[in-house]
Amino acid sequence: MGKSRLIFRKNKNKMINFIKPLIKKIMDNDVTGMAAQLAYFFLLSIFPLLIFIVTLLPYTPLAQEDVFNVIKDYAPQETMTMIQKTLTEVLESRNGGLLSIGVIGTLWSASNGMNALMKSINRAYDVEEKRSFIVARGLAILLTLAMIFVFILALLLPVFGKQLGIFIFSNFGQSEMFLSIWGIMRWVLSPLILFIVFLGIYYLAPSMKIKCMTAVPGAIFASVGWIIVSLGFSYYVTNFGNYTSTYGSIGGIIILMLWFYISAIIIMVGGEINSLMGERKGNCEL
């Protein structure tokens, strides 16, 4: 009993010794202020990003509804309605193919959010951007494309993964067992995809060399934290926060900005966690 208490106290002291400097870093780096800037850039990027994804859909077996269904799982209903309506209006007025200059410009605009995120993560590590404008912007575009690829893969996996699993397990007469396993795997898949995205961002975004394992704690925090906060915020808005009655037609925009603001705080805190753990373990190299 005494040994258990000693271990508990040790772990508690470790936690306190980590949380205190983390809060100090969050305050010193003005995470809430930077999150407001990030929310603004996320707002500028969301529609170009969705337009680019939807433009790619004819080259895949997916439909627009598949994209909207993923967003609907996390976004508040009023925001989802506004995104769907705006995107439909924009797409109806667009002409041209995938490789048109308009779509290339759309991809450039979509990378604004990633570019701002890279700057905020550099701030978490207290480093200046040492890469040239072309290299930094190119990396932002590549990370945006990688995120789009992972997003489309996340949409394809549930469909083709299930079909492939049923085909393989049916040869052993265990298709029913696979369906039970798949029911559990579906809930694991989204957090896993999010974790991979955040891990890539936290590893590649800083203008310094870091070890991949140093990016893991922040990626776990951001993945789990973002899902919990998004679902909680969506529940609150749906059941308690009647923004449409208060603000009218701009209620959807206000909800979207609040969602982006909360998401930006979660992502930036993940970067601060990685930075602090990297400093303590000596895994960061300027």
From TrEMBL:
PANTHER family: INNER MEMBRANE PROTEIN YHJD (PTHR30213), UPF0761 MEMBRANE PROTEIN YIHY (PTHR30213:SF0). The chain crosses the membrane at residues 38-59, 97-118, 139-161, 181-204, 216-237, 249-271. It comes from Lederbergia lenta. It is a multi-pass membrane protein. It is found in: Cell membrane. GO terms for cellular component: plasma membrane. Pfam families: Virul_fac_BrkB. InterPro entries: Virul_fac_BrkB. It comes from the Bacteria. This is YfkH protein. NCBIfam families: yihY_not_rbn (TIGR00765). Keywords: Cell membrane, Membrane, Transmembrane, Transmembrane helix.
